[in-house]
Every structure is written in structure tokens, then in C-alpha cells.
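Hey Z.,

So I finally got round to the zinc ion thing we talked about over coffee. Here's the setup:
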Amino acid sequence: MFNKSVLQTLCVVLLPAALIITGACGEKAGGLREQADAPLASQPAASADKNPRTGDASAISASFSKPEPERTPVLTKKAPQHTLSDIDVLIDVGHGGIDGGAVHGGLLEKDINLAIARQTYTALTQQGYRVVLNRDKDYALSDDNKWLNTRSRHIRDLAQRMQMANDIKPKILISLHVNSALNRSKKGPIVLHQNNPGSLLLATQLQEHLNSTTRTSFMPMVGKTYYLLKRTKCPSVIIEVGFITNVEDRTRMTDPTGQRQIAHGIRDGVTSYLTQSGTLPSTQKSHDSEH
Ligand SMILES: [Zn+2]
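And the result:
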């Protein structure tokens, strides 16, 4: 269902071959642990970041974007029209704004999620996939939810992310989060999936490639209790990319090289999934896998 109230709050930044949508969604469903909502006023959404900008002419012309001024129709070569249904991957960037997620010292999960999301966005778009980030700055997506009448910022946040996913209808949704544990030796990426074959296949491919990146051997797990996983209609997974409480994971997740390795693991997992599910887009480019 197309939820106008949600999409009215969305803005699109068009970049070559991909999209960043700012101004919707927010969630905490991803974490293995949930934190209480901070009873603080939400930060204002980063409105300056939400202005649509036109980009490369070859970029996707999404239904959110401003129409281009009409040109003299001499030899009209109509650009291919894309809609949001053309989106391959929606990256749900966990937390944001007043919701920092997991914490270790001064390090906040929301910042790790955003850094890895950006790297993943780059890795996927370089491959030719159409990708949407649901936040590209530090703000709470719950601020954009004016349509759900609840006092819970947390639920507004989750609902906004869910509604966005269901409106955009990407092929897959990947929600990025960071784990935390009292036991500081716990480490490694864990992929949580829905209880359906598509999500399981996606999670298996992602877990395999992330295991290879981090030299771990985890199996993906079903995430029955997670808001997003229960409510999104496309194959969706939550990736807990590592433990903020483990020094090795923390180093990898905060170092640009380590973040890039994680992003490449995700990219390769996505490619495996799209190949095996027969949904590889024609825009997909070949690449030399680098780790
Ligand atoms: Zn989280």
C-alpha cells in the first residue's frame, strides 16, 4: 500500500546509479538488545539535507524526484523511467539522532552504522545496483513519522522504517546494527532473518561472506521478535556487524579499511543472493572481488 503520509516526508538525493532517501524510518529493532526510549525531545530533522537535488542524468528518476523542465521535443529520446520498484537494496541505517544505540565509551552504534552503510552504499552502487539509504546523516527518523499516533518515539521510529520499506518495495532490505555483550570476548557478525526462504537465503549468503571477511563461522539466526523482520514484505535481514564491546570488532568497525571489508562482504552476499534468486538486475556490473 502506498502510504502518502509517509512518502510526503521523504526526499531523494539522486546520485549516479543510486538513491539516498533521507527523512524516513528509524528503528531499534535491529539490536539484539533493546534500549529504553530516551524521554527527550527529538532533534529536528536535518532539513538542509533533505532537499532533493538532481544528479547525473543517468541516475534513477524516482517518483519522489522533481520533474525536469520540459525540453524542446526535436529528437525525443526518452530516458528510461524508473520507479521505486526498481530499487534493489534498501539499507536501513540503525538508530540516529537522540537514539545512539549501543554505546562503548564515547563510541555510539549509530555512527558505526552510518559509516558502514555509506561504504556499503558505495560498494553496491559501484556494482550497478540501485540502492537507497534511509538516512545519510545523524538524525532520528521517528521525527518524520507524523502519521502514527503513539507517544512512543521508538515505535514511531520502527513504524516509519517499516512503512518506508513497504512503500519503496525494494528487492531486499538490509538493516545495519552493532551488537553489545557483557562478555567482551564475544565477537563477529551475526545475520538475523525472517522465517521465510527468501530471507533465509539472503541471510545465509551474507553470513557466509561476512564470516569469510572476519574469519568467523556463525550461522544466521531467525529473528522472530524484531519489529522490522515481522512487518516488512520483502526479504529482510538485520546484520549485527560486530560487537562494540569487543576490541577486535570495534577496531574493524571504526577503521575505514575494516568498514570497507565489511561493506564488500555485504556486497558479495547480496550478489550471491540476487544471482541465486534469479533477481540480478541487468545494470549489475562485473567486479573483481577485493577483500
Ligand atoms: Zn542497533
